[in-house]
Amino acid sequence: MAREKRLCLDAEAAAYQDAANVAARGEIEARERADNMIARVISDEAARKAERDRRYAGRKARQR
Questions:
Q1: What is the spatial distance between Cα 27 and Cα 35, in angstroms, rounded to a whole number?
Q2: Residues 24, 28, 33, 34: is their CA dihedral positive or negative?
Q3: How far apart are CA 5 and CA 16, in angstroms?
Q4: What pLDDT, in 10s, does the model give residues 3-58?
């Protein structure tokens, strides 16, 4: 009887550990997605700024 209870408790503990691992992995993946999104926004802003600077430089060169 004690052995069965111990096995049941071990199985329950393993299930809780698995659930905690899944939750932790989900948090990590969400953080990675957010980091990727932030990096993409920064990259897009840099590309827009470079394009704007290129256009302004062209205008400035034509004005001379």
A1: 12
A2: positive
A3: 16
A4: 898 999 999 999 999 999 999 999 999 999 999 999 999 999 999 999 999 999 98
d(CA 31, CA 11): 30
Q: Which tokens is 59 given?
A: 């205008």
Q: What is the C-alpha to C-alpha distance for residues 47 and 53, in angstroms, rounded to an integer?
A: 10
Alpha helices in the chain (DSSP H): 2-63
- Assigned token pair, 38: 């932030």
| pTM of the predicted model as reported, rounded to 2 decimal places | 0.61
Say how far apart CA 29 and CA 7 lie, in whole Å. Answer: 33
Structure tokens at 13: 């503990």
Residue type, 30: A
